[in-house]
Design brief:
Layout: H1 5-22, H2 30-42, H3 47-59, E1 67-70, E2 75-77, H4 78-81, E3 84-91, E4 94-102, H5 107-110, E5 118-122, E6 125-126, E7 134-136, E8 140-146, E9 152-153, E10 156-158, E11 176-180, E12 185-190, H6 199-212, E13 216-220, H7 231-236, E14 244-250, H8 251-256, E15 265-266, H9 276-283, E16 290-293, E17 306-310, H10 317-328, E18 332-335, E19 343-351, E20 354-365, E21 380-381, H11 386-390, H12 395-401
Helix pairs in contact: 1-2, 2-3
Length: 403
């Protein structure tokens, strides 16, 4: 719905109050935010313009994982909405977005889209970089896509809805896939880590490693959107013992000071719902401040012979894994630098069905590195080649196989 001017002003005030109270990051100048953005926000003429103006203000906070949306029409980037990422590339049609990571079980893959396909239009409208690609959840779109062979197709992409209102998210039908590349090398691809505790994805990753039973393991986190603490299982599968991974601290804890060794320790993903109860009691008062340790799962055949594939879309919990592997020397990291989008986020109601999503806790590696805005650099830099992907080849995976 379109709000009145006074209603828009009221929502702006509640957003700024929430930032003052909840935001974890550089001390925000909410008075300055109001002076700079109030005219555009209050003077907006429709819902789209209103949301765009508030989101522009949030971006000026200089951190990831901020957003403003209405419960009735949550939106998300392609990596979340259709389980696909894009890269800018030059084509005979000029600069365009090329599909890069297309995850099995996602909306894009379900429509027959493949890496190397070039996006020309959405619902008949040209889409040209640097224009963003937000999709409204629960909506169908008609794409015009050019194949690497020059032919064009017009698939209909059905974007699922989201059951989660605070942080709208779409979970692909298939999150973990495993392939044997040869007798000695296994490949596990993980598109995200759904669930707060990640029990299902943890089970699936453990099962995939056991089923592969290979001496070398390549873990593909390219395009992984992050998620919950299910990523701990992947890190635990990299080493036999219990060791520090990192720690998360809320704004209040950071302000009064803390000792990471004395934070509540999370070192085990429960195997059943009964195991959730003691965890809920243990962390009820932690309020996002927790130290993370691996699960001590014992020796694995692939230990010492693990490669981790990441790219500029491997975000959030995927960056936790990459940083742990890099700092601990447990895997060779191959690909491109991760985006540096690693903060804990919550959504808050701000009136008239609107919500604002804000960072509420900061994450540090065990060595004290804050990855927000910097990301993780690979040990072996290997950018994806548009020419190779157009030929159906994966030059990053090929490089990983020989590391």
């Amino acid at each position: 719905m379109t709000l009145s001017e006074s209603q828009r002003r009221d929502v702006l005030s509640k957003v700024l109050q929430t930032i003052d109270k909840q935001f974890m990051g550089a001390e925000p100048d909410t008075a300055g935010l109001r002076r700079e953005h109030e005219a555009a926000i209050v003077g907006s003429t429709d819902a789209d313009e209103f949301e765009a103006a508030v989101n522009a203000m949030l971006r000026s906070l200089g951190t990831s994982h901020v957003g403003f949306f209405h419960d009735s029409r949550p939106r998300a980037a392609g990596r979340v909405a259709i389980a696909a990422t894009f890269m800018k590339t030059d084509t005979p049609d000029g600069p365009r977005w090329m599909f890069q990571d297309v995850h099995p079980g996602g909306a894009a893959a379900g429509a027959g889209i493949q890496p190397g396909d070039v996006l020309l239009t959405i619902d008949g409208k040209d889409v040209v970089p640097p224009d963003g690609l937000p999709f409204q959840l629960g909506t169908a779109y008609t794409f015009t896509v050019r194949r690497p062979n020059g032919s064009t197709v017009q698939p209909t992409v059905e974007v699922p809805g989201s059951k989660e209102k605070k942080r709208p998210i779409v979970v692909p039908d298939q999150v973990v896939t495993a392939t044997k590349l040869d007798d000695a090398t296994g490949l596990i691809r993980v598109s995200m880590f759904p669930g707060v505790l990640g029990m299902d994805v943890a089970r699936d990753m453990s099962r995939a490693v056991a089923d592969l039973a290979t001496d070398r393991l390549i873990i593909d986190l390219r395009g992984n959107t992050g998620g919950g603490i299910g990523c701990l299982r992947l890190m635990s599968l990299m080493c036999p013992d219990r060791r520090g991974v990192g720690y998360s601290v809320s704004r209040a804890v950071a302000q009064r000071g803390f000792d990471k060794e004395r934070l509540p320790a999370f070192d085990r993903i429960p195997t059943s719902k009964l195991g959730v109860i003691p965890l809920a009691i243990k962390f009820a008062r932690a309020r996002r401040s927790v130290a993370i340790f691996t699960e001590a799962l014992g020796a694995q055949r692939h230990h010492g012979r693990t490669v981790l594939l990441v790219n500029e879309h491997s975000a959030s919990a995927a960056e936790m894994v990459a940083a742990f592997a890099s700092e601990s020397g447990l895997a060779t990291v191959v690909g491109t630098r991760t985006p540096g989008r690693l903060v804990a986020t919550s959504g808050f109601k701000v009136g008239f069905g609107y919500r604002v999503a804000l960072p509420v806790a900061a994450y540090f590696t065990w060595n004290g590195t804050n990855l927000e805005g910097t990301g993780v650099g690979p040990d072996v830099v290997e950018p994806l080649s548009p020419e190779a992907i157009g030929r159906g080849e994966d030059n990053q995976l090929r490089r990983a196989r020989y590391c």
